[in-house]
Amino acid sequence: MATKDPTAVERANLLNMAKLSIKGLIESALSFGRTLDSDYPPLQQFFVVMEHCLKHGLKGRKSFLSYNKTIWGPLELVEKLYPEAEEIGASVRDLPGLKTPLGRARAWLRLALMQKKMADYLRCLIIQRELLSEFYEYHALMMEEEGAVIVGLLVGLNVIDANLCVKGEDLDSQVGVIDFSMYLKNEEEIGNKERNVQVAAILDQKNYVEELNRQLNSTVSSLHSRVDSLEKSNTKLIEELAIAKNNIIKLQEENHQLRSENELILMRTRQHLEVTKVDVETELQTYKHSRQGLDEMYNDARRQLRDESQLRQDVENELSVQVGMKHEMELAMKLLEKDIHEKQDTLIGLRQQLEEVKAINIEMYQRLQGSEDGLKEKNEIIARLEEKTNKITTAMRQLEQSDNDLLTQTRTIAVSLVKSASSDPQDQYKLVKDISF
């Protein structure tokens, strides 16, 4: 028996886990509510499974200390391939609590799920296999068909809404372990799950029917208005048709009268055929001309009726165009009102800021005037102090000079006293030395 390729088995296992995780997440979200938060266990397991799928076959990159494997590299590449992903990349890099590339990749996955763009981002990534080969081995899940299948399954997540708080969550130190017990359920739980799915489907159908009913009511109201307008135009056409019928009846009476006259003329011509042959031919020509005029009038009436029908169709088309233009104008008026309110709020804020800046300028001007007055006073005090310092310096110099003169006079007097007091030179030297000290 031939052994299977371990990498193929790993890809199959990850694909099955992704199927179970996405299916369970969608079914549970439809059963208990479409809005999910960060503490929802199926949602946490989904992120763990996606992390394992993205890590499969990832090449090791040599860092300063050792080799590391991170999925932030290929996810960061999405910005170059999909311009709309630049905003999510900038948001992840601006988050203050993220310190590792793995934490940034986890935050990226959560933001992509909230934007309902995870399938689109990863689809444009797996298409560029030449660029992915820089990050993944050739046998990696993202390089094989299993990656495309998982991206296709991710489209189903667009039916749910996720409300995740990424800013305060510790994404760097989380341990990504798949909890298989969530997907090993007994028959009773499966039955309850199926019933919940059926109930959710019935509720969805009810909501769809209600929405369809609302749309039909709006359509019926618009149709009623169109019917009213058409009835008005129809009454006008009926009146015109009645007038045309009256004209036709008159023409038929005239035609009948002409026919009776023709019969009388024929009877007279039969009686007086030879005598009034020329007169009969003249009357016959007159009758033909009158018959041709009647046919022309009948054709004109039919042509007018056909034109009125075409005019009615044109009026209906014009009415539908006018209704569409009315809806577009109402939408444009709402957008203009919203823009005007926003600009008014901005103008009020700018006016408040201008008043605050004016108050600050006045306060700064007052402080500047006070500081200038204080500076003048301090300059005057410094000038007085310098004058006093100069006087004190001069006095000290005079005192030092007087002290020196006094010391010289004292030494002279002491020497003279020593000389007069003792005749021994040694005793004189000692006395002079003591006096100098």
User: How much beta, percentage-wise?
Assistant: under 5%
What topology, given as strand order, has the largest sheet? 1-4
Structural category: mainly alpha
The name of the CATH topology of the domain at 6-184 is Methane Monooxygenase Hydroxylase, Chain G, domain 1
In the CATH scheme, the class of the domain at 6-184 would be: Mainly Alpha
User: What is the molecular shape?
Assistant: elongated
Question: What is the mean predicted local confidence, pLDDT?
Answer: 80
The profile of the biggest β sheet is:
2 strands, parallel
CATH A-level architecture of the domain at 6-184: Up-down Bundle
Distance between the termini: 119 Å
Low-confidence parts:
none
Q: Could you name the CATH homologous superfamily of the domain at 6-184?
A: RUN domain
Number of helices: 12
Total strands: the figure is: 4
Radius of gyration: 54 Å
* Order of H and E elements: HEHEEHHHHHHHEHHH
The portion of residues assigned to helices is over 70%
Structural summary, described in words:
This protein is mainly alpha-helical. Among the domains are: 6-184, Up-down Bundle (Methane Monooxygenase Hydroxylase, Chain G, domain 1), CATH 1.20.58; 218-330. The protein has helices at 6-32, 41-55, 72-76, 78-81, 86-94, 101-115, 118-127, 129-132, 145-154, 187-271, 277-421, 425-436, and strands at residues 35-36, 61-62, 67-68, 161-162. It has a two-stranded parallel ribbon with strand order 1-4. A two-stranded antiparallel sheet has the order 2-3. Strand 2 (61-62) and strand 3 (67-68) form a beta hairpin. The protein is elongated. The model has no long low-confidence stretch (mean pLDDT 80).
